[in-house]
Each structure stands twice: as C-alpha cells, then as structure tokens.
Amino acid sequence: MAVIVHRCTTCQHPDLFHSDRADGTLGPCSYGLCREPSHAFGPPEILPTWRPATLTGPAVPDPALTEPGTRGTGLGALCGCEDCWALFHAHASADDGAGHVAAVA
C-alpha cells in the first residue's frame, strides 16, 4: 500500500527513515546520512509501493493508499498532520469502492 511521507531536506529520505524521539520529534536518519540535531521536512508526497501481479510475473503498482496516522508493522507511525490528510482526501475521489485510493493522480 502506498504511503504519504515527508522527505528530509538534508538526506532526502522519507520521515519513516528517521528515529522517533521521546518528545515526538524525529531524530537522525537510520542510514546515518544526516546527524544534525534538527531536521526540516518538505511537504507531504505519495510514496508508491509495488506488489507482485503473479507468483513469477513482474511487480505492478499497488493502488491502495494508507490513511495518514496509521501505525503498521514495518512502517512505524505515519504522519497524521493536516497536510497529509489533505493530500489523502485529494486522492479520495479516485476510490474504487473497495477502499483503494489511487496512489497517483
């Protein structure tokens, strides 16, 4: 499922790659590319994901978009800010009726 993320302006990794601090802020990048005490993050963007079409076939885009603020296995907690929700709702009109929201416009 695609997710909405903010990219670090220092290392360009998604906010998911930055460690959570006790005060709710994000720490350094898990790849060690930015060790500065404070980080700036850009506007939200959709990070697409892929899934196998068949057991042996090529991967295809997964059209489902995960709701902001979701805490998932392997994801940690996604940002739930107003800008993330606005981007999510902007794509909600492309919902296919099965709860899948188009990940790309």
UniProtKB/TrEMBL annotation:
Protein name: Uncharacterized protein
